[in-house]
């Protein structure tokens, strides 16, 4: 007989008398109206993340009801609990800074409170990786339920979806092609329903990755937030959570070397967000699995881009769902995937695909393997003297004419410097130059914001220049596009060579050779290095201090050193 306590008898508060602790807990739980019979059931915790500062989760109350319905039907007691929520556009300096805080919150609350399994309700960009990181570290049976994407809106006859179209209209506005009155009109039409950004941005990429890892129910990554299927998925997730109780299928077992490679394949095939490399590295890192950029390049060479969604292509997430969604994509990739990976349903990926059959697929959105949109993956890592530990280029969203390019560096030493000078009519810049942003990496005070999508200088934008090579240690929104080299590692603030670049230097990029080099001789770089100032002092207190002391580079997923498994 298994004497391990379950339900609310799990993990008692320590008063030095276990029976008293349970008696007190039951008493206080009954004060919330639960009967003794309900309190005898196993408990499914629900990590619940609605927030007035998170538009993407505004439908969570309705989803919560559906999850609870599923849990109750399957014979357990659902109890929701709050954790930090990260609304992408409401956080300063950037949501990534707080992803690890949310992961700590999730891990500790899952571990400390009495639950036998947990449903993780997330969606907006950093919430899904934060919850998966926390769940892997907590090691309790867990299943994820994502918010689902927003529906598109309409503007003067064309479809609009956050946030590729946000950027497209803003670029046109900066170039003087859209009037003040129209940009105000567009602002009200970009995000009109609940749910996460409508394109294959970071949130949707992470939802697809969660499905590829086996951490959400099959076929649920792309269901629109407002679709009835989203509520049916929520109910089914509640049922599945109850089935996980007592199971050995815990997240640190589901997330393994093979499932991480499946997730990488999917990331490459969907032309997904560059941010996902950082997040997947961090999630895998919590399970003790290294994810190297060299391996990313190997998989990128043998994984075609099959999904035609913005920002790299044309469609929106609602089209991906209608086209056949993740099931259709996984079937196309079948021979490249590790089919023996277990999923939260208790089935392997191969079993899932074998009984899903072959449904109708819209080939304008999900291409066949033998007619891919691109023969090789959407992301590629570059190495060289400018990025000894790697940098990322989203080639599926870049201008191929700039893949083999040498240009003069025009350097901005910080975000403030960029804001002050980028639109200066006197800025010495032309379209063949390479814009460089320093001090925007994970070790900087700005904590690696999505600022790598440097705007085209106004004097060039008004002349019709739409793309230039841009290089930084920052990140880029998953909804952005352009020939943009990101995550240069080590970053400037931790002493990386990016800090040594000066305006006028030559930078050479070769996607073919996977290289990015600063064409300056070593002696000069040594001289500049000796001259460069020491990094800023760590903040005096609080989370900012913990962040400054513990943050790791992009190559290690920007996790905190002390959160890695021992
Ligand atoms: Fe939440 Fe884009 S703002 S996913």
Report on the architecture of this protein:
This protein is of the alpha/beta class. The chain has 3 domains: 35-151 and 193-356, no CATH class; 153-187, no CATH class; 379-535, Glucose Oxidase, domain 1. It is built from 20 helices and 14 strands. It has helices at residues 18-30, 36-39, 60-73, 96-112, 127-138, 164-174, 180-187, 202-213, 228-244, 251-254, 257-269, 275-286, 293-301, 317-323, 325-333, 349-356, 415-421, 458-461, 522-531, 542-550; strands at 43-48, 77-82, 117-122, 142-146, 153-155, 158-160, 379-384, 387-394, 404-412, 434-437, 469-472, 484-486, 506-510, 515-518. The chain has an 8-stranded mixed beta sheet. A 4-stranded parallel beta sheet has the order 2-1-3-4, with helices on both faces. It has a two-stranded antiparallel ribbon with strand order 5-6. Strand 7 (379-384) and strand 8 (387-394) form a beta hairpin. Helix 4 (96-112) packs parallel to helix 5 (127-138), helix 6 (164-174) packs antiparallel against helix 7 (180-187) and helix 8 runs parallel beside helix 12. The model has no long low-confidence stretch (mean pLDDT 95). The site of FE2/S2 (inorganic) cluster has 9 residues, from loops. Residues 56, 88-89, 124-125, 196-197, 201, 203 line the site of FE2/S2 (inorganic) cluster.
